[in-house]
Design goal:
The complex is a heterotrimer of chains A (326), B (328) and C (339). Chain A has 13 helices and 14 strands. Chain A is of the alpha/beta class and 326 residues long. Chain A folds into two domains: 181 residues, 3-Layer(aba) Sandwich (Rossmann fold); 128 residues, Rossmann fold (3-Layer(aba) Sandwich), CATH 3.40.50.920. In chain A, helix 9 links the parallel strand 10 and strand 11. In chain B, strands 2-1-3-4-8-7 form a six-stranded parallel β-sheet, with helices on both faces. Chain B has one domain: Rossmann fold (3-Layer(aba) Sandwich). Chain B has twelve helices and eight strands. Chain C has 339 residues and is α/β, with parallel strands linked by helices. Chain C has one domain: Rossmann fold. Chain C is 41% helix and 8% strand. In chain C, helix 1 crosses helix 2 and helix 5 runs parallel beside helix 6. Chain C is globular. The chains are: A alpha/beta (326), B alpha/beta (328), C alpha/beta (339). At the A-B interface, helix 4, helix 5 and helix 6 of A face helix 5, helix 6 and helix 12 of B.
């Protein structure tokens, strides 16, 4: 059946609440400002009121409460709001949740999920356009889930809520809410830590995650239609764990790569992918890697300014042509 | 109606306080010979709080502590050898050497952890209390923090949440008058931490934290009410730390008069006086102290010789279970 | 900026209200993207607070900042251009509505995070103290008391005894409780909101946000105390939310506010009519000065025409202002760098 990304999130929450009494929802603003998406949560709000907690705006305190509850056997998901807000809770997410299992020599695990509506949504200015995945990826012990399509929105969130033994940040992108995928009810999800080849190709690899997946696929269509270029699109699905094997395998096959990421360029996810290729695939590369990421600039409000900074499908296609020497 | 503690029970608590005092003495000694990695924080002088509160908790209850946790952990029932081994970073330590002094955890005894972050555990304790509430098994969570933690926003956020959700949470604030090297008067206009609990209608008491009997009784009442689902409680124990903020702190910010006055209020001395007044012979008290001393010396010797963790295992425990990708 | 004259006060409040109405209209016409927030229904607070401020004082606001900035003296045309993301805006389009700042008017930065500006305001108060001149004022909503940042900012302000006035605009109050009453909230268990700052040893009081004269007296007194070195103060301004603010995006039920509604007329929408009668600070003030005969109705009408013309010019300016060049996206990341 076909579902949207937003439906996938709502279904994952609903099914998780139904199947495990330890699952708790802290906050209910998972769908941001989209009225239609917000409506999707009404059944959940109606059916499980005792496990859904209305909250004051206390990201720090609530993240900590989620961590403490998780350390004692609950499986909470806490809505930390728009992307940058996770920084309000960063002290708990990074300094507590991620360290506990290691510091205790293996005694305590923290299966808490931090839900973040991250990414550049348009006209959000500097504090409502947060892309935290690289920063979060720098925290040992923290999983960073970044679904790029509805099937993984559903599968990864459900996995985090029901199966994961470790703390996760689930990065939901509001611009993906209407993207659709086919899912087969009851089918097993691709394992966490495996990237997915969304489109097979031979001329170059486009490595993408989150919102970049849809744009990479659009770029690949353009490249084929207008330039006869066959691009392979690799959907990372998770930033941590990062599937380095699939990345290397794809580039070993194609010899050229464009890495598309929404984080700021420096010290970003793309940098990590590029470093991996430099270390493990140098002999396969026919051209230097190309990173397409957002410049190191606080996100400005005015549309033409913001548009200048965003990594679009057009930029990805243009980058691909550059890497192909055209 | 306060229950009288039996003399036997009181002697046990006296002995436990002695053990903690001597434990900290050993840590200080080992630190001075360079055998303790990092900078441990000693709770010398604050034994009555740890012992008086933990005597009212079971293994099923959970405690969280701060960076000054040694006394709490031992009072809750952890094996002092495993605690000291952890402080020395040895494989036999509570956390196999991974955590050290500021990350002591003994899950089997409900010690869910020390933390190196001021106020870092306050909201975690609220979460544990919340889990206990949801499970409905009558367990409670207690968190020890210092007066310095009240400057952290999360302390107040937690008071708000604990009150809103009526959590079975006991907050024990050891007000020793110092946040690191800054006296309370310098960093706060609020002398008593219990003031912060008032707007949230969280009941609180401020007691003399150096009187074991007072602490024990106050904790008994508070814990009883918390366990009875009456919502959170804040117990403020006025005390002092006899050692510095950390081992190596010369305490130049405290006057000689202040240090002398402390000796008069030593909680072990005070309890000893009380016991003597009730007919316990000096010989017995001395024997308890000497026994604790001998025990600690043996523990220290054993811990110093304990094996260090194998560097090849440094990646163990980062994650709870093998990740799917690793298995493929 | 002394504006105790009724005509000036009416003009200042109307300027905010008419400006906000145009924002809503422009948003409906899709002239600018993104979410925005209007100050309709709270104008008396910004106007009377800013009457007490001097050039050397600082203001901090939130995402709901238009009223505060206009009351402080910001130019409507530059503000509107900013809201539309145009180069004529105060930040040449970089901030949009959420972060409008005007350094020259003592508004150095505007945070869009709940409680975000509170610590900034404490820091500004500290700077004023060290300079020996000026005070800082921060406007925020009741939800900020749920944020740890509030506590941290207030505790520091009190310990450092900085000249900072914390103005909490609590717009969740039913009309009959504005002058006195509890604060029933599902997210803050304090019986009275003021109990919280008082427990932090900061002197606190409450005032009716619908009563301009009560606000004026309150701010005059508190600003004098703060300016006189008395340390920080907290005031809860108790307001009843404007009905157009309840939907996710602001709406103008019954269209633009009509002057007539303060002089006996009623809008079609019953909830709006009730709000105007019981809670609209502008209408309540107009009724008061009409009864006291301090300002003739014809003068009020003339003021409104003038303000409407001013705002219309501001809208024209904003619409005609060009968008900034794309390369400007890279500018102003660093202070002092070559552009």
């Amino acid at each position: 059946m076909k579902i949207t990304f937003a439906q996938g999130v709502a279904m994952a929450l609903s099914e998780a609440l139904a199947s495990d009494p330890n699952v708790l929802m802290i906050g209910s603003g998972f769908m941001g400002l989209s009225p239609s998406a917000r409506d999707l949560l009404n059944p959940v709000l109606r059916d499980y009121p005792e496990r859904i907690f209305v909250t004051p705006i206390s990201e720090l305190g609530l993240a900590g409460a989620a961590i403490g509850a998780a350390a004692c056997g609950q499986r909470p998901v806490v809505d930390l709001g728009t992307g940058s807000f996770i920084l309000e809770a960063f002290a708990q997410v990074a300094n507590e949740a991620a360290n506990i299992h290691y510091m205790t020599g293996g005694q305590t695990s923290v299966p808490a999920t931090f839900y973040s509506l991250a990414g550049i949504r348009g006209a959000g200015a500097a504090q409502h356009s947060g892309r935290m995945q690289a920063m979060l990826g720098q925290v040992p012990g923290l999983q960073v889930l970044a679904p790029g399509a509805a099937d993984d929105a559903y599968g990864l969130l459900k996995w985090a809520l029901l199966e994961s033994q470790n703390p996760s940040v689930f990065l939901s992108h509001s611009l993906l809410f209407d993207e659709t995928s086919e899912i087969v009810a009851g089918a097993a999800m691709l394992p966490v830590g495996k990237a997915r080849i969304r489109r097979e190709g031979t001329d170059l690899s486009i490595i993408a995650s989150s919102i970049m997946v849809a744009r990479a696929l659009a770029a690949a269509d353009t490249l084929e239609r207008e330039h006869g270029v066959s691009a392979e699109v690799v959907d990372l699905r998770t930033i941590v764990p990062l599937d380095r094997e699939t990345i290397v395998k794809s580039v070993a096959k194609t010899g050229r790569v464009v890495i598309a990421d929404e984080c700021p360029l420096s010290f970003g996810v793309a940098a990590e992918v590029a470093a991996t290729l430099a270390e493990r695939a140098l002999s396969h590369l026919k051209a230097p890697v190309l990173r397409l990421a957002v410049p190191d600039v606080p996100i400005p409000y005015s549309p033409p300014l913001e548009a200048e900074l965003i990594v679009t499908a057009e930029k990805i296609a243009a980058g691909a042509l550059r890497v192909l020497g055209r | 109606m306060p229950q009288e503690l039996s003399l036997e029970e009181l002697c046990r608590l006296y002995e436990q306080m002695c053990l903690i005092r001597l434990f900290e003495g050993q840590v200080q000694r080992l630190a001075s010979t360079g055998e303790v990695p990092g900078f441990p924080h000693l709770s010398t002088g604050q034994e009555a709080v740890a012992v008086g509160v933990c005597a009212n908790l079971s293994d099923d209850d959970m405690i969280f502590s701060s960076h000054r946790a040694h006394g709490h952990v031992i009072a809750k029932g952890s094996d002092p050898y495993a605690v000291l081994a952890e402080i020395l970073g040895r494989q036999d330590g509570l956390c196999q050497g991974r955590g050290g002094s500021m990350h002591l955890v003994d899950a089997a005894k409900g010690v869910l952890g020390a933390t190196g972050v001021v106020a870092g555990n306050v909201s975690l304790a609220a979460g544990a209390a919340w889990a206990a509430q949801l499970r409905g098994e009558g367990r409670i969570a207690a968190v020890f923090s210092g007066d310095g933690a009240t400057g952290a926003g999360v302390f107040h956020e937690t008071l708000n949440l604990a009150s809103l959700w009526r959590l079975p949470l006991l907050l024990v604030c050891e007000n020793n008058g110092y946040a690191e090297f800054t006296s309370r008067e310098e960093h706060s206009n609020v002398a008593k931490v219990s003031t912060f609990a008032a707007p949230y209608a969280i009941p609180s008491r401020t007691v003399d934290g150096n009187d074991l009997l007072v602490v024990h009784e106050a904790a008994r009442e508070a814990i009883g009410r918390v366990r009875n689902q009456e919502g959170p409680w804040l117990l403020e124990c006025m005390t002092f730390r006899m050692a510095g903020h950390y081992v190596g702190d010369a305490q130049r910010y405290r006057s000689k008069e202040e240090m002398e006055a402390m000796k008069e209020k030593d909680p072990i001395v005070r309890l000893g006086r009380h016991l003597a007044g009730r007919g316990v012979p000096a010989q017995k008290l001395d024997g308890l102290m000497a026994g604790a001393k001998g025990r600690m010396e043996a523990i220290a010797e054993r811990a110093r010789k304990a094996a260090r963790p194998d560097p090849a295992t440094v990646l163990d425990y980062v994650y709870s279970a093998k990740l799917a990708a690793e298995e493929n | 900026m002394q504006r105790q004259d009724p005509a000036e006060r009416v003009a200042a409040m109307l300027r905010i209200r008419r400006f906000e109405e145009q924002c809503i209209r422009l948003a409906n016409e899709k002239r600018f993207p993104g979410h925005f927030h209007v100050y309709i229904g709270q104008e008396a607070t910004a106007v009377t607070a800013c009457e007490q401020l001097r050039a050397e004082d600082f203001i901090f606001s939130t995402w709901r900042n238009h009223g505060h900035l206009l009351a402080r003296g910001a130019a409507p045309d530059r503000m509107m251009a900013e809201i539309l993301g145009k180069s004529g805006g105060y930040a040449r389009g970089k901030s949009g509505t959420l972060h409008i700042a005007v350094k020259g008017l003592g508004v150095p930065a505007t945070s869009a995070l709940v409680g975000g500006a509170l610590p900034l305001a404490t820091g500004a108060g500290l700077a004023c103290k060290r300079r020996g001149a000026g005070i800082s004022v921060v406007f925020f909503g009741d939800a900020a008391l749920e944020e740890g940042a509030f506590y941290e900012a207030m505790i520091l302000a009190q310990v450092w005894q900085v000249p900072t006035l914390f103005i909490c605009e609590n717009n969740s109050i039913p009309p009959e409780q504005r002058k006195r009453g509890q604060f029933t909230s599902s997210t803050l268990p304090a019986a009275r909101l003021m109990d919280v700052p008082q427990s932090l040893q900061v002197k606190a009081e409450a005032v009716d946000g619908g009563d301009l004269e009560a606000l004026s007296e309150c701010f005059a007194r508190l600003v004098a105390e703060v300016r006189g070195g008395g340390g920080p103060r907290f005031v809860e301004v108790r307001c009843t939310r404007w009905t157009g603010s309840f939907p996710l995006w602001p709406e103008l039920p019954s269209g633009d506010w009509q002057l007539d509604w303060a002089f006996g007329g009623k809008p079609e929408r019953a909830d709006l009519a009730t709000w105007i009668e019981q809670s609209d600070p502008l209408a309540l003030y107009l009724k008061k000065i009409a009864a006291a005969k301090s300002l003739e109705r014809s003068k009020v009408t003339a003021i409104d025409q003038r303000v409407k013309a001013e705002i219309a010019q501001a809208v024209r300016f904003a619409l005609e202002s060009p968008y900034p060049a794309a390369r400007e996206a890279y500018e102003n990341v660093w202070a002092g760098a070559k552009q």
